[in-house]
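Title: Request for sanity check on Thioredoxin domain-containing protein prediction

Description:
We are preparing a figure and want to confirm that the structure record we downloaded matches what your pipeline produces today. Could someone re-run it with the sequence below and paste the raw structure tokens into this thread? We only need the token string, no images.
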Amino acid sequence: MNAKNLIAAALLLFVAASVAILLGREMRESTTVNSDSAEEQLPENALVVYYFHGDTRCPTCRSIESYSHEAVKSAFAAELADERVQWKVVNYEQPEHIHYATEYEIVSPTVVLVSMANGEVADWRNLMRVWELIGDRDAFTAYIQKEILSMLGS
């Protein structure tokens, strides 16, 4: 292979790698609530189930998000449909969301339930036990669902 072909192959690999990286970033960001819209879309009266994550997302963190979302979807489909329960994913390490760390006592990725009444936070719970229960999916799901039912007053 001559030098011209080697340079052409190297440039093609560089372009392909760049496109792959950009697509990967786009896919990761598409699973997260738009940072500008997360606060603007707070409901007047509803329970918001937040999954808060940081900039670095380990496999366990991703499992907590996945298991939590599935627990909410499977037990509260009707409430999600009529927006009495809302699911939001927010990076609490972004500058515009850093206030959540103080407001909801976030020290690591977690699930936080926020009850809204008349446009104000009426009550909230940080479900830090998700870390303790991540190894037992059934117990994890039961914990999330029980806490949501409790916050809904059911």
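Thanks, this matches our download. The radius of gyration is 20 Å.
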